[in-house]
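Suppose a classmate hands you a notebook page containing two proteins, each written out with its sequence and a corresponding row of structure tokens. How would you begin to make sense of it? This section walks through that situation. The first entry is reproduced here exactly as it would appear on such a page.
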Amino acid sequence: MRLRSIARKYYNFIKYNLGNPQLEFDYSTLPWIDHDNADIDAFVSKFPVSADYPYNLKEKLEFWKKNGYVIFQKAVLEEQIDALWNEFDETMDNHEKYDMTALIEGYNNTRDIAIKKVPKEILKGIDTRVNEYHSASVLAKKVITHPYITTFVKAVFDAPVVVYQTLVFRYGSQQDTHQDFPWVTPKIPSHLTASWIALEDISPDSGPLYYFPGSHKIRKFNFGTGILYRHGESVFGPKLFGKYLDWKCKKEGLTKQALCIKKGDVLIWHSALVHGGLQIANPELTRKSLVCHYTTTNAYPAHKWKRDEAPTISYYNDIAVYANPLLREEEDSIVMEKA
């Protein structure tokens, strides 16, 4: 009976992922840069980049189109990084005051839990990622909308941009191989990108992020419900998804790379870039990180927790940030940055 079940599973995998026409994002809603005939020269000639934060936009967009990511070195000032981490650490030390939530793998048999209900040693341990810290923190809002990030993300979408979500974590994520778009789901799946801001120098023994350059172009995985994962509905789950991505990247000749960037460096990646977190070789080493996902206001017109309600919006460097409608009293409540 078990063999029959396994055989059926792999028959369905072959039917959905090898036998059907290739699934892809809706081409009519793709960001311009993902079009086959994207004219980067013409775009750059019309797109303004602040002279206060100069970088070669054409070079970055060409690299993005080919590889699915870009890196800005020493983008965020170390003083700002230190202030943010000290603020976050103090927040975790006083976690009983806050209703913001954390995702803690294997803890309390729940997905998200209010940090006030979690012991401090768990909050500061491996496998904990704090959700939406930026909602409470003015400084986090400023960091995730750093001009290097905002100008580039606006160029990728060529549309009004909004912050979708953030995660802050102390240790390497050790996540399996994945892509972001099946899990982080604005109304238009291709309207998604992310940044990782290194809050310290990253050691190769700390479980660094790994990625496959160029993997944003591989054939999409079909969960049996399309390219998006539907909890309780999809035929296939995260484990098989990860195995497929590893196999497909190897088949396409794409090389797995570990990213050991420096404090203040920023990685921005395409929603379809295949990546994950290596295992932590030395549990004494941290990988302090701030991750943010961005989308367009067209794909995300209202906050995900109140989709039928007009959002309360603030703007940082021309990027929209929606107030968390479930935690209005905590919005911008943490203001520890020195003037």
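The notebook's second entry, a different protein, reads as follows.
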Amino acid sequence: MIDGYEDDPVVAGEDLLDRPGFWAAYLMGMCERDENVPDLFGVDNDDLDTAADALMDEEAWPAFRIPFGGGHTAVVVFANFSEDAGIDYFVTHADWDRRGFLATIDGHFAGPGLAWRELVHIARTPDRSSPGVHDPHARLLLLLPALGDRDTPADAVDVVARALRSAQVVPEHETERLVARLLDHPMFAAARWTMPEPHRDGDEVFGGILVCDAEHSPRRGIRLAQGITREQNDRLARALGTGPG
């Protein structure tokens, strides 16, 4: 189903979003380890365990597709290797020879992979002609673990809170505490994102895509997608909300 995973048991995971306990299972890694996750998310322990088992199934690796502008798709894959499981976040396009990596969550973390402005833009620009998750709130929550941005705006709290309420993820009295956990999660440091000067690759000039200063990010000082043309680069920049319209 996805290039690079042809020999792996990857399955479409979008149907899992409707399961009780899904969002608690998906987001619990972003909370402090000593949190009582069922209480924080207002879910039943059995529902949480069932959803977590589905996400971590070694025989059926769930993949969540988030199609956005210009034919691009952000993908989240639970790579459930028996001894080295992890979660991969990347961007694909039918015209690319290889994926653009965003982040990996495993024993050797790589990230962050998204700035706040990119996360919000992708969430709000679904390509409904392509399969995957189209609800803006669910899209934001699926990509939230890849975020790491020290300049996250003040209204980010309200944006994430609305997403949680829309997905009926959290009891009202826990919303403020959960949002604080999700925006200050332990996975990736809050990176500084900047727009680099356009650079020349052969006869073509590339620009318009942010880079970050995080030491372990796939996006530290390099293009998000390698081996793409200037036209493809510009299309991606517009799809991320950072390139000229």
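A careful reader of the second entry would note: The radius of gyration is 18 Å.
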